[in-house]
């Protein structure tokens, strides 16, 4: 099979593989026109309008890039709950899975000049069903592009493990892209990671800067995290915040801490905090010709906020989420939450594309992976 595509894998979870793929598909579309996208093995899935389950990333890429392929073509194999046990029990046929992946890839390649194949996690994910990323890349006859965190020593260590997995399965590594590189370390990392990768004759094809906005959760993310719906401000589900503040201080101290683009986490019983927030909201709106603080609230505790307070928050059109846990638990959950890019969050999608496109060497990438 000719190498009319390349496989994107990461060195670990939450490294920024989907973010990188967004920029890669966009940049390649500008240069080549027709670009295909394939997620051969998916885990987190959604149901399409036709009732078929597909990987969630497929929906994102099809909708944003207006791809011709059906979602089912782009997502040939899924690992739902209990899948691995079914495979080990002999209830799932390996040959059927590989055939579906190969047929999907061939169908996409027929009307695409190049296909971006997004893997799942690091190169070893899927090994238990004999379909890890390196195995799939080898089966499709494509090279692997590895996405790694934007460091030096630890990033190289992770790359070493993943490159060995690729070598073991006969999947050549075309290059490396580092993601979330801190600006003050950028030049140093470019120089020394290039030197380190030279021992394998693997090029560094991109060095994507850290961007706080791409990691910032929206109110919709918190709805999913806490399994709760917004009480008010539902039209601001995609609002993002520069600051997340747990408010447990006196109202006098808090008043000096109210700033725009801030998410406030406080017990529902702290009416003084809620009223102080509303007062600042309206004062700002009146004093600055309708300017919005663009804030949000997560109210916690066993007792929900009073209806009268909810009504006032609703009039201010502030997105409000009530979660029946302590503020401590809420903040702990928020602190460990990893924000993902979603189809409807078009602002974040566009920002991701701009960031990646501007920091990948597409000419070198194409000369490395495109042979036909």
Q: Residue-averaged pLDDT, rounded?
A: 94
Task: Please write the CATH class name of the largest domain.
Answer: Alpha Beta
How many angstroms does the end-to-end distance come to? 11 Å
CATH architecture of the largest domain: 3-Layer(aba) Sandwich
The strand order across the widest sheet is 2-7-1-8-9-10
Secondary-structure element string: EHEEEEHHEHHEHEHEHEHHEHEHEHEHHH
CATH superfamily caption of the largest domain: P-loop containing nucleotide triphosphate hydrolases
| Overall number of structural domains | 2
Question: Biggest sheet, in brief?
Answer: 6 strands, parallel
Strand content is 15-25%
Q: What is the radius of gyration computed over CA atoms, rounded to a whole number of angstroms? A: 23 Å
Shape: globular
Number of helices: 16
| DSSP summary, beta strand count | 14
Helix amount, in percent?
A: 40-55%
